[in-house]
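Lecture 7, part 2: worked example. A protein chain together with fe (ii) ion.
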Amino acid sequence: MKVSDAMESAYSDQVTLELWASISYLQISAWFESKDLPGMASWMRIQSGEEIGHALRFMDFLLARGNSLTIGTVESPKPTYGSAKAAFEAALEQERTVTKAIRELYAMASKEKDAESFPLLDWFLTEQVEEEDSVQKIVGQLRLAGQNGSALLMLDRELGARKPVAQ
Ligand SMILES: [Fe+2]
Ligand SMILES: [Fe+2]
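Predicted complex, written out as structure tokens:
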């Protein structure tokens, strides 16, 4: 059964938002690469891939419901981060924006009693808690590292160990 026109538009916007998140992570990844922090660059690149997976998940759901998808314009962020911590803070801000949008989708699905949306949105709400948590922890560790170059390099090595998860 199709979702309403309003929900079709909200799901389309969510696909656009996940693509925006993906491009933003890729931009931050390039910034880290230019700052000689390849581990953090790799972490961001893997995250960028996960966001593409999220976009596809929303897209497939919308199409499975018999609706159509309209991808909007994605505005790339300016790669002007003052520090590694600022770059991860930008990532955290971005995740919070995505969380808000998913909560709004949830509110809309509740209002329209679109029960089929709930398992999908539940999965995403849990995912957002995990993503915010992992980025928050990294921001905290970068705060502790401060200007200490060896602590930063150690953290870079640790984050570089992240492996992509099969979607
Ligand atoms: Fe996402
Ligand atoms: Fe995310």
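Residues 54 and 129 are 15 Å apart (CA to CA). The longest helix spans residues 5-34. Keep this in mind for problem set question 3.
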